[in-house]
Design goal:
Layout: H1 35-41, E1 55-64, E2 71-73, H2 78-96, E3 102-104, E4 112-115, E5 128-132, E6 136-140, H3 143-159, E7 165-173, E8 179-185, H4 193-205, E9 210-214, E10 216-217, E11 220-221, H5 239-251, E12 255-262, H6 267-272, H7 281-284, H8 303-316, E13 324-328, H9 335-339, H10 342-351, H11 357-373, E14 377-381, E15 400-403, H12 410-414, E16 418-421, H13 424-427, E17 428-429, H14 445-450, E18 463-471, H15 481-500, H16 508-518, E19 529-531, E20 538-541, E21 565-566, E22 578-596, E23 609-615, E24 622-628, E25 636-652, E26 663-664, E27 666-672
Parallel strand pairs: 2-3, 2-4, 4-6, 8-9, 8-18, 9-12, 12-13, 13-14, 14-15, 15-16, 16-18, 17-18
Antiparallel strand pairs: 1-7, 5-6, 5-7, 10-11, 19-27, 20-22, 21-26, 22-25, 22-27, 23-24, 23-25
Helix pairs in contact: 2-3, 4-5
Length: about 675
């Protein structure tokens, strides 16, 4: 197992970033110690934020916000930090019900002091240190580290039911890699600016840094360019939209990287200007979805095509602030297709290249020169050397390469390249293809969290710049955003945790339960509700399958999405309705629940019509909600007016497919954010 702590700290240091608030500290008293000594020895565990804190030394007691608390900036860095401080103040207002004033000066007890002049080089540009005592002191080397510290503080306050306190202690926290990224395929499926903003806020909550937008594919070119009237799809982004999006992203320290996929995936371009097409069928068509329509790959043997691409990039690059411009480069025909194209072979011979593959490497290097002339860095998918393709030249080593076919980026790094890794078996989300473990594009979150090494080699001048979850829309273009989010949410949470370098908890399911306990960021739809921890709950049901499969009711409480409760079908199934009942151990304030159907892409057990009842004594029941679940495997969230209950019962009155089965992978109860624990009445 890879170790994340890079140097030895004093023995009093506790690396317990995943320990939940309120759990006994890692320092334990000996059997012979007196109760007073044991109590004195107990120190605060680290707040169970996400990503978890790398280094923590627990103190005693808590820092508490008061009516006089302020956010205090030092004079030297006040101008740099003021925008982050204002965002922080707004978020704290949503959390604590009062917006703290942002001032310059000397902090007092109850204040939060933000500083960006740390000399601690190990923190890097994105790390930070916390000293939590009478004053909560944040120190970082720059604005980004201060911002990530504020996200940690907000989550820690969220975990306190009063939303006013954080355990005292000191922390040092920094990421393993610079880029922790999400790619979204908006070329095949258009996503609104509002949706993209939601993704940005959630990414910042998890300390993800980079939003890579795949802006063109065979379904559409998504940027409106006045220099190319008629090129953009009906659903596309104006320059004003992109400006608004990037200004919002800057607030949350998220970098928006544009991708114009060249020379493959070029159907919108060749439809706009048919002179850009290859004449040969072998290169004009592609084996990938949409490639059968023709016009898949630009004919880069023509000067007309090269001039068109140059002018296109000249129009696109100034619209974006990022230092990176992604030019695609993937999924052009393999060597047999290239060698079967007469005009490509003639061009190769005329230029003195050894292989037809050299034509495309040379084209990528030409694009790189243009991107670099704008002071930017080129990014591209690694493709030229995959699947046995041959070339006698290589992409310039100033190009950042996205390694997605290999599980380990080390060989590409060893060639001297800077690499962003997005290995298909580990980080590809393609719900149009993969909806269960073993499918292409379905992330096995348990294996990725517990077993994938996320290697970060740095050899021969090469290094790993970061890791990326790549979200593809192939064959799912008509699905809802909720459908896409269902398959992407957990992989993004795992990516955020593992690439930060947080100490791992024993299992992925423990980790996910802690993420759910935090909830969403201020301002999000998930902000007002939090998952009720399942520890201590008991479950009963009228029917469960225990012979043909493990369909026990207890599976709805294990936070493992791959196990499930399923009603009995051996030797025969009992008729509907079926119910499952949870005992919470004490009355709690409830405001909703989440129902997760089985996650193996099977349809049996998916509940159709349902009733959700609550009770304080397990005898007298009242209905909190009723309805019908959609017939798909996405998690469903139901909310209702806040009510107090110890017992809850989900009754399935029909199945989505009409068969006599009910089931669930998980049943998660939601409490209002203001819930302060078991009811005392």
């Amino acid at each position: 197992m890879r170790r994340f702590i890079r140097h030895v700290l004093p023995v009093v240091l506790l690396v317990v970033g995943a320990a939940p608030l309120g759990v006994a500290g890692a320092a334990s008293a000996s059997a012979s110690a007196s109760p007073v000594t044991a109590a004195a020895a107990a120190v605060n565990p680290a707040p169970a934020v996400q990503p978890g804190i790398r280094e923590w030394r627990g103190g005693h007691g808590e820092f508490r916000l008061t009516p006089r608390s302020r956010i205090v900036l030092g004079g030297a860095d006040a101008a740099e930090l003021r925008p982050t401080a204002r965002t922080f103040a707004t978020d704290l207002g949503a959390l604590a019900g009062r917006t703290l004033p942002v001032v310059t000066g000397t902090p007092k007890a109850g204040d939060i002091a933000l500083r960006s002049r740390s000399a601690d080089a190990q923190l890097g540009a994105q790390g930070y240190a916390l000293n939590i005592g009478n004053v909560l002191e944040v120190d970082a080397t720059g604005d980004a580290g201060v911002f990530y510290a504020t996200q940690t503080i907000e989550q820690a306050i969220r975990l306190d039911d009063r939303h006013t306190s954080i355990p005292r202690g000191t922390a040092r926290d920094w990421p393993d890699v610079e880029q922790r990224a999400q790619m979204l395929d908006v070329g095949r499926k258009f996503f609104s600016i509002g949706y993209l903003k939601t993704q940005i806020r959630e990414m910042a909550w998890q300390k993800l840094t980079t939003f890579h937008l795949h802006l063109t594919d065979w379904e559409g070119f998504r940027i409106q360019l006045p220099q190319f009237p008629g090129l953009a799809a009906a659903d596309s982004y104006s320059p004003a939209d992109l400006r608004e999006l990037q200004d919002y992203a800057r607030t949350y320290h998220v970098d928006v990287i544009p991708e114009i996929d060249l020379p493959g995936h070029a159907t919108p371009l060749t439809t706009y200007d048919p002179k850009l097409r290859f004449a040969c069928t072998s290169m004009d068509q592609g084996k990938w979805p949409g490639g059968e329509l023709g016009g898949w790959t630009l004919d880069i043997t023509k000067q007309h095509t090269r001039d068109f691409v140059h002018d296109l990039l000249e129009a696109v690059i100034p619209l974006f602030d990022s230092k990176y411009v992604h030019v695609g480069g993937d999924e052009i025909g393999l060597d047999d297709k290239k060698n079967a194209c007469p005009e490509l072979v003639s061009y190769k011979n005329a230029r003195g290249f050894g292989y037809t593959g050299d034509v495309f490497v040379d084209f990528l290097n030409t694009l790189n020169k243009q991107v670099r002339s704008h002071g930017r860095t080129t990014e591209a998918w690694e493709w030229w050397d995959q699947y046995g393709q041959q070339s006698s030249i290589a992409p310039d080593r100033t190009i950042v390469l996205d390694d997605y076919i290999d599980s380990d980026p080390s060989p590409l790094v060893a060639k001297g390249y800077t690499v962003v890794a997005s290995p298909e078996p580990v980080l590809y989300v393609s719900p149009g293809f993969g909806q269960k473990i073993g499918d292409y594009g379905y992330v096995d979150i348990g294996d990725t969290y517990e077993n994938y090494a996320f290697p970060t080699p740095a050899v021969g001048g090469g290094r790993v710049l970061g890791y990326k979850v790549s979200r593809w829309s192939d064959s799912a273009e008509t699905q809802s955003t909720a459908f896409f989010d269902h398959f992407a949410r957990r992989p993004l949470e795992v990516l955020a945790e593992r690439t930060w370098g947080s100490p791992r908890v024993p299992s992925a399911w423990t980790f996910l339960s802690q993420v759910d306990a935090i909830g969403g960021p201020p301002g999000s739809t998930a902000f007002s509700l939090r998952a009720l921890p399942k520890a201590g709950m008991t479950v009963s049901t009228d029917s469960e399958e225990t012979t043909a499969e493990d369909g026990r009711a207890i599976n709805v409480l294990d936070d493992d999405p791959y196990s499930a409760w399923h009603t009995a079908y051996s030797p025969a199934a009992a008729p509907m309705p079926h119910h499952i009942t949870l005992d919470l151990g004490a009355n709690r304030q409830l405001a909703g629940f989440r129902y997760l159907p089985r996650q193996d892409a099977g349809t049996n057990g998916r509940i159709g019509a349902w009733t959700f009842d609550v009770s304080s004594d397990g005898v007298h029941w009242r209905t909190a909600a009723r309805g019908t679940f959609a017939d798909d495997q996405t998690e469903k969230e139901i909310t209702f007016p806040t009510t107090s209950a110890r017992h809850v019962r989900l009754t399935a009155t029909s199945a989505a497919n009409g068969l006599p089965y009910a089931g669930a992978a998980e049943l998660t109860l939601l409490r209002p954010d203001s819930d302060s624990g078991p009811d005392k009445s």
